[in-house]
Amino acid sequence: MKEKRNITIIDKKQIPSEEPARQYYFMDIAKKYVAELAEQKGAPLTFCVTTFGCQMNARDSEKLVGILEKIGYVEAPDEKADFVIYNTCTVRENANNKVYGRLGYLHGFKKKNPYMMIGLCGCMMQEPTVVEKIQNSYRFVDLIFGTHNIYKFAELIVTALESDSMTIDIWKDTDKIVEDLPVERKYSFKSGVNIMFGCNNFCSYCIVPYVRGRERSREPKEIVREIEHLVQDGVVEVMLLGQNVNSYGRNLEHPMTFAQLLQEIEKIEGLERIRFMTSHPKDLSDELIEVMKNSKKICNHLHLPLQSGSSRILKIMNRHYDKEHYLELVDKIRAAVPDIALTTDIIVGFPGETEEDFEETMDVVRRVRYDSAFTFIYSKRTGTPAATMDDQIPEEVIKERFDRLLHEVQTISAEKAGKLTGQTLPVLVEEVNGQDASLVTGKLTNNSTVHFPGTADMIGTIQNVVLEECKGFYYIGRLA
Ligand code: SAH
Ligand code: SF4
Ligand code: F3S
């Protein structure tokens, strides 16, 4: 049993039933509690949000930070804070193990700090076995919530602050999208924007549909409104986020395609760059390719996850495309946008993968020549169809294939890097270079990194830069 925090419990009278009003009501209450505790402590309460996993989670963390700052917590430089939150990922087993490992070390801090709270949220918390394990073996955790009720964070903080035991609130799924809650962006000039939540694809290896629920698209007018506000606030680049952006809009009252949404976003004045992820090959339309070809704002980069080059394995993966279709798509895209950078995700060692299947993957890698590729060792996720398939591949076989793939991918990336040397191209300046303060670092629209002499006031601006030299995976340039 934990000691109750020493706060004067507020009697809640007219709790609004509508969102987001209800959460703003709880933010006011939380703010009073945080102020009271800060006075006892003699210093502001601090927080640290640690994010695991994908850009979806990174964006969710910005929402958590938005609320924490709104209620009076101050960001700490590390996890020696009064409120530590782990926004977790469970896409591969090693993501889970990292969290358990670090929880032990957080417990050490907590024993020394009577104000400290530990919160866990994100995809891992949607797995009942995980929550059970935390309840049994990590009793010092204060708050657990999932992916569907993250908008309720303010309300959950109030419950946790008032409670002397673990607060747990996990929903199985939701059809709700709550708009207009506070967000604190990590970067002033670029932002992720959710266009949809969840996933309906059920690739047979993947746990995401189980932990993120069914696919829901946001209304286009809400997306456009959010981006307009972001632009007013200094954002020049957005990353549209969804597990399969190519199926955007199918479940809206007035259905709309992703290509149509992009055209609406393109019209937003002051917005300079549009990125998106992830594009599922099965739903990548000719309409989208046409829009990409004609767009002035969509970046020269497409992330197109392959997963496997073997049509046989793709079928068992439930990916709904085959090797030929994938290669055709690549040809079509390159014909429309000749200098586009292509990146991908590949899984090695899916159950039943033979040497021949693996060679098909290598073949696609050699034919497409990706600018870069994320390669993953297949990880068995309990509850997915692949987890119970016969013929799980022995570790040594996977490791050997993985090394071969990685070598191929890296050789090709190295050969492709530098192909823009000599050109003058726009660079969005992101930061002052960490090693050499006379340089700034930014990105080309194809996502390559460029360093060039510049000053901090350039951060967030787009500069024309001559790419003078390529060093490994980045360019050195000078202002044009
Ligand atoms: N929605 C995105 C992927 C999200 S998960 C898409 O469909 O492309 C990011 C990547 O993790 C996937 O592309 C896949 O390559 C990898 N991944 C997912 N489940 C995995 C598993 N069980 N083992 C290994 N890698 C996995
Ligand atoms: Fe997972 Fe497939 Fe959905 Fe991507 S599309 S999140 S790989 S189930
Ligand atoms: Fe991980 Fe969840 Fe993203 S499982 S990859 S954080 S959607």
Automatic annotation (TrEMBL):
SUPFAM superfamilies: Radical SAM enzymes (SSF102114). Signal peptide: none annotated. SMART domains: Elp3 (SM00729). Binds 2 [4Fe-4S] clusters. One cluster is coordinated with 3 cysteines and an exchangeable S-adenosyl-L-methionine. Residues 185-415 form the Radical SAM core domain. [4Fe-4S] cluster 2 binds at residues 199, 203, 206. Coiled coil: none annotated. One of its GO terms (molecular function) is metal ion binding. This is tRNA-2-methylthio-N(6)-dimethylallyladenosine synthase. It comes from the Bacteria. The lineage of its organism: Bacteria, Bacillati, Bacillota, Clostridia, Lachnospirales. Residues 418-480 form the TRAM domain. Pfam families: Radical_SAM, TRAM, UPF0004. Monomer. Its main location: cytoplasm.
